[in-house]
Amino acid sequence: MSRLRPAVIVHYHEVGLKRGNRPLFLRHLARNLTRTTSDLGPVRLRQLSGRILLDLDDHPAPEKVRDRILRVFGVASAALAYRVPSTLEAMKAVVGRLVERRTFASFRISARRAFKTYPLTSVELNRQLGAFVLEKVAARVDLKEPELEIHVEVMPSETFVYVDPMTGPGGLPVGASGTVVALLSGGIDSPVAAWRMMKRGCRVVFVHFHSVPYLPATSQAKARALVERLTEWQYESRLLQVPFGEIQREVVLTVPPPARVIVYRRLMVRIAEALARERAALALATGESLGQVASQTLQNIARIDEAAGMPILRPLIGMDKLEITGEAQRLGTFEISIEPDADCCTLFVPAHPATRMSEDEVCAVEARLDVPRLVAQGRAGAVAETFEFPARAHAALTE
Among 32, 51, 157, 236, which residue carries the largest CB count within 10 Å? Predict the structure, then answer.
């Protein structure tokens, strides 16, 4: 019997709805599929009708390729499939090899033709292949809730047979929607917000504010670990570490305690925006959730927005802490985020921050500061690091 010829067959959904822009999204998707598997061995990628094929003939690790593909935004589902000629006998041969390795009480055949001139209809294929399976195993046909579903996708020159398709993350391919700068605190929320922006096709640049030497460098190490984890979803990341302790000290000497948190946030937004414009980013992104803490009341969010000259995106704004925590656990960022650290949010923070500051009140306290100088100071002190996946060494440099 001839050897099985493995391939990963990738289906997409939202990308396929883009009509005139579909080729652009598919180019981004193909590039990301190639990038994420680049260290696993040779992969030949082909665009087929409504799907993408990764040809894995002689590949050393087909399952690893499939698993990597399942972390690519834009992928609706992926399966390890086997390629055969588009003849009924060839289909039966590979179906037979797949079912002989499994125990199941019920099954169904799901055959689809990508071209309608094939001599057998989908219904006829289902019947003939189903009858073949019934001859091989003691199982029954169940069209509604089968234990095993055997997929057969018939193309003009070849057919793909597979079981157990796995759900991908969906969304849009990273890079297709432009670049955003995400403020990364080291807590639970901001990594989830960054991941959600990636899912909408954005490439994310990370900005982390720290208070070294006033506090230990633990928050910087956490930021690196979080970015390293999230880079598995966008393949290359930039982390900008901004010293914020001296800026906070000046705020403490000038601004009344209740107003300090809002002033800190507005300065962070201005510094992040300056860094974003240097990198042609079109928006900022934060992990804010409405009403979760004092700085995230609707009034204070409005005050923070007034400091920005570009959109601030808040993908978690309507989520509660339990929902955000669950998503962080699924992403693998939760355990990193809860490691003890001392970040700038714990330095010089008043016991009772204001929750409903007016625009006039904020402007009055900021008038005591040299805001342009503080923003320039933060921007000039940013230290950039690059992360890549598959992992290679990353270097630090001062910008």
Answer: 32
- For residue 36, the tally of other CB atoms under 10 A from its CB is 22
Give the closest residue to 9 by CA, choosing from 50, 60, 59.
50
Contact status, residue 237 vs residue 230, Cβ threshold 8 Å? yes
H or E element, residue 177: none
Calculate the average pLDDT of the chain: 92
Phi/psi class of residue 387: alpha, beta or left (left: φ > 0; alpha: ψ in -120 to 50)? beta
Rounded Cα distance, 6 and 169, in Å: 23
pLDDT at 231 over 70: yes
Which pLDDT band holds residue 395 (cuts at 50, 70, 90)?
very low
**According to the 3-state scheme, what is the secondary structure of 283-334?**
EEECCCCCCCCHHHCHHHHHHHHCCCCCCEECCCCCCCHHHHHHHHHHHCCH
Q: 89 pLDDT exceeds 60?
A: yes
Query: Average pLDDT of 19-31?
Result: 90
Rounded to an integer, the average pLDDT of 82-99 is: 94
Cα torsion through 355, 358, 359, 365, rounded to 10: -70
Residue 30: pLDDT above 90?
A: yes
Q: 242-251 in b/e burial notation, b at 16+ Cβ within 10 A?
A: bbbbebbebb
Q: What is the mean pLDDT of residues 123-152?
A: 96
pLDDT one-digit tens code per residue, 243-287: 999 999 999 999 999 999 999 999 999 999 999 999 999 999 999
Domain 179-398 matching CATH 3.40.50.620: the answer reads yes
Q: What is the pLDDT of residues 35-54, one digit of tens each?
A: 999 999 889 999 988 899 99
Tokens 């900008």 belong to which residue?
A: 240
**Phi and psi angles of residue 72, each rounded to the nearest 5 degrees, phi first:** -105, 120
| Nearest-angstrom CA–CA distance, 308 and 310 | 6
The domain locations on the chain are 6-167, 179-398
What does each C-alpha distance from 200 to 16, 31, 173 come to in angstroms? 15, 16, 7
Torsion (CA) 361, 358, 191, 337 in degrees, nearest 10 = 60
What pLDDT score was predicted for residue 347? Answer: 60
Beta partners for residue 298, in sequence order: none
Encoded tokens for 62:
């087909």
Residue 217 token pair = 């460098």
